Structures are given as C-alpha cells and as structure tokens.
Amino acid sequence: MSFLLRDASQADIPAIAEIYRDSVLNGVASYEIVPPSEAEMMQRFAAIVSQQYPYIAATDADGTLLGYAYASAFRTRPAYRWMVEDSIYLAPEARGHGIGKVLLAELIDRCTALGFRQMVAVVGGASPASIALHLKAGFLEVGLMKGTGYKQGRWLDTMLMQRTLGEGMATDPDPSSYPGTLFAG
C-alpha cells in the first residue's frame, strides 16, 4: 500500500475523528468509551499544534487519510517539558502495511529535531502489535501496569515504553529554547 506523509490540518479532522471513533468503539488502545465529537477532536488538534507539537497525516495517492500520529505533553508540569508522548491511529484497512512504522519514525525524527529528549508510549490494552512496533523503533519496556482499565468486558493492562531522543540525558537542555519554554510558569 503506497502512502504519503504530510502535516495534518484542520481539514483532516472529520477523517481523524472517524479513525479515532473506530479505535474507541472497536479497540483498546484508547480508554475512552464514547467517541468524541468532531468539535472535540478539533479542540484537541488545536491544543496540540498550538504548542508546536508535530501532528502527521498519512494519506493514499487520492488524499484519503489512512492514519495519523502526533506527539503531545506526557504531563504539563514544567520538569516534564523535555518528554513527549506519542499517539498513532490507523484506519482498519491501513493496518499491517507499515504505515504505523513510518509514522512513528517520522514522529521520532521531528521530536528529536525540536529538542525533546525522551519519548514515552502509553500502550493501552498492552497491545502486542503496538508493543512490537515500539520495540522495533528503539523503545524499551519500562513498566506494565495491571488492570488499569475496564473495557469491552475485560480488564486491560497498560505498557509503558520509553525511548531516548537526541542527546537524552547526556547534556543539559537549553531552557530558553523550545521545548524549554513549554510550561515554564
């Protein structure tokens, strides 16, 4: 399956909302039970991109959205500003074609270029496919939280995974440049 990567835009929100809706209703990656509205997804998108985090779309040659990935704050306390959390969602027909791998690699590259030092994956449902994807991208398993959610009639575990970006902890970051200016209050 051929695909292209580009920055996501507000015009993608209906397709993003539909992909996420499927994940909420049929998957365990998201612990939401009720899919958010397009208006809510627009607010979430705006909050992420207004903070200069990357939000990437994967499309087919006709422009149909196949999946998306974004980085966002792991936590909004100032000391966490050097760490991002990744999120990747694919349309059902796009799964298993390497799109998630390419989206994650691009997200890692962009976050590294922005100056982030760590990336964390919070793998809802401890999905074996998502864990394998992250392991191949250089993430390490750093913790398994048992019974963190209850969805689709079963208890779900959450796998925490982490990957160093750029210089990681080898050097001190510059607090006067992005992402040092995030949550500096």
UniProtKB/TrEMBL annotation:
Entries under CDD domains matching the protein: NAT_SF (cd04301)
Entry's transmembrane regions: none
One Pfam entry name: Acetyltransf_1
InterPro entries recorded: Acyl_CoA_acyltransferase (IPR016181), GNAT_dom (IPR000182)
Gene3D superfamilies in alphabetical order: 3.40.630.30
Domain of life, source organism: Bacteria
Positions of the N-acetyltransferase domain: 3-166
PROSITE patterns, A to Z: GNAT
Name listed for the protein in its UniProt record: N-acetyltransferase
